[in-house]
Amino acid sequence: MKRNITLFLSLMVLMAFGQLKAQSVYPGKKNINKTEYLGLLLNQSISEKQLTEYWTEYLSKFGKAKEKRGVVTVEKASIPQISANPVTILSEVSSPTKGQSQVFLALKVDGQYIQQYSGANYTSTESILKDFADKAAVMNEVQVADDAFSETEKKHKKLIKDGEDLTKDIEKAEKKLAELREELNKNRSEIEMSLTDLQNKQKALELQKSRLPK
User: Fold this and answer.
1) What 3-state DSSP class applies to 5?
2) Does any domain span residue 211?
3) Which range is the signal sequence, renumbered to this chain (predicted)?
4) Cβ neighbours of residue 30 closer than 8 Å, sequence gap 6 or more
5) Residue 53 to residue 57: CA distance in whole angstroms
6) pTM of this prediction?
7) Crossing angle for the helix pair 119-210 and 48-59, to the nearest 10 degrees
């Protein structure tokens, strides 16, 4: 029993560590369009496609966000906590490993990209990514729920259509069955008439045979 509890606690710690690692923010470098930049990285377990959409939408609150092949930029972004002057945002969403996506963020302040993330500029830049991580998690939960609803709705509509098709098939079958019954009744009447005619023909034959010389 004690061993099972220890194993369970170990698994819980590993899961918590994995989630923490998946959303950690840390300094790093990124090569974008053959140029290396220093910035901050955010790891996420959200798909690269969805994360790109969320990130582009999120950056739109700072200015006009443009996205091309995962690279998202904002010229003349308004980020008061970073600088009173316009800031250039250079970022990229990628998927470095299977099952994990990543956001890279570099900021250009007063004509120069930040070369060292420490102190106030680190905390301010980190807060942007952490705020985004929280919002992205909620947006992804909504997306997952929406996808589940859409899939269930799609299946529900298919079931309704299948039911309608089956109803039509039954109506066709009932109509065909009614026609077959009518044909069967007609056939029975014809059999009775044919039998009467056969019996009459048989009597006529026997009558003619009786007239043959013996």
Assistant:
1) helix
2) no
3) 1-22
4) 36, 37, 39, 41, 92, 104, 106
5) 6
6) 0.65
7) 130
Torsion sign over Cα 193, 199, 202, 208: negative
pLDDT at 108 over 50: yes
CATH code for the domain in which residue 84 is found: 3.30.310
Strand partners, 67: 72
Residue 51 has pLDDT above 60, yes or no: yes
Residue 55's pLDDT is: 95
Residue 129 covered by a domain: yes
Q: Using the structure block, give the residue that is written with the tokens 């959303």.
A: 23
Structure tokens at 132: 């985004």
Q: Is residue 128 part of a domain?
A: yes
The C-alpha atoms of residue 133 and residue 2 are separated, in whole angstroms, by 37
How many domains are contained in the chain? 1
Q: How far apart are CA 50 and CA 103, in angstroms?
A: 12
Length of the chain (residues): 214
Structure tokens at 173: 């079958």
- What is the predicted pLDDT for the residue at 2? 45
CB-based burial of residue 39 (10 Å sphere; 0-12 exposed, 13-18 middle, 19+ buried)? buried
Domain of 133 in residue numbering reads as: 21-149
**Radius of gyration for the alpha carbons in the chain, expressed in angstroms and rounded:** 40
SS3 sequence of 60-88: CCCCCEEEECCEEEEEEECCCCCCCCCEE
* Backbone phi and psi for residue 114, each to the nearest 5 degrees, phi listed first: -60, 125
